[in-house]
Amino acid sequence: MPSAVALSPDALTPDEFTARLRALAPRYWDRHPFHLRLHEGRLTAHELRLWAANRWYYQRAIPRKDAAILSNCPDVDVRRAWRERIVWHDGDRPGEGGAEDWLRLAEAVGLSREEVLDERHVLPGTRFAVDAYVTFARTRPWVEAVASGLTEMFSRDLMARRLADMRLHYPWIAEEGFAYFTARLGVVADEGKSTVDIVVRHCRTRGQQEAAVAALAFKCDVLRGLLDAVDYHCAGGSS
């Protein structure tokens, strides 16, 4: 790995910078009212299906977001590490990968594969938020796009709790429907640490650090915007 460029005089120390990033945890979507109802077992089957279909639109965008980062990143070491994320989601062949596992969840809650893939249930708010995220990754400096993915720092505990709560409160969901969560739990902690390392190593000025914090805040808003759209629809709002 190439040696890091020295920090500029006004830059935060690595520990201070990391603390600024972690301080955004309250903006993560784990505290969104829709997620709270999901974990409490208060969603109807229809609401679970709407959530799964809209979350699919986000899942299918992740490899395109990661490909945009690769196309903008001049650092070969980062590219080597980052391309594994695309493989994880897309798989090496048809029928494999995280996206396929999410489709299995959608089927387990009662959706057909066809209605998920044709996106008939995707709400305008979901589409707007997710498309904005892909555009951000394509048009902003690559390290800001990487920083936007630091929601991984907050996701492992939420994912473990979701798996336990969904098994408890929605026993009608077949176990194979949880393949996405069980597989993701095995990689998200390591991915989160490697992402922090990349961002800290490459943000050497205060301006770069502030841009990275803003990028993570933006990603939190994207995720909450997706749930806002689903929650509003479930409450009877027009789409």
UniProtKB/TrEMBL annotation:
Pfam families per record: TENA_THI-4
Keywords: Oxidoreductase, PQQ biosynthesis
Keyword Cytoplasm: no
InterPro entries linked: Haem_Oase-like_multi-hlx, PqqC, PqqC-like, Thiaminase-2/PQQC
Pathway listed: Cofactor biosynthesis; thiamine diphosphate biosynthesis; Cofactor biosynthesis; pyrroloquinoline quinone biosynthesis
Residues of the Thiaminase-2/PQQC domain: 20-228
EC number: 1.3.3.11
Reaction(s) this enzyme catalyzes, per UniProt: 6-(2-amino-2-carboxyethyl)-7,8-dioxo-1,2,3,4,7,8-hexahydroquinoline-2,4-dicarboxylate + 3 O2 = pyrroloquinoline quinone + 2 H2O2 + 2 H2O + H(+)
Residue spans crossing the bilayer: none
Enzyme class: oxidoreductase
A GO term for molecular function: pyrroloquinoline-quinone synthase activity
Family indicated by similarity: Belongs to the PqqC family.
NCBIfam families xrefs: PQQ_syn_pqqC
Described purpose of this protein according to its UniProt entry: Ring cyclization and eight-electron oxidation of 3a-(2-amino-2-carboxyethyl)-4,5-dioxo-4,5,6,7,8,9-hexahydroquinoline-7,9-dicarboxylic-acid to PQQ.
Name of the molecule in the record: Pyrroloquinoline-quinone synthase
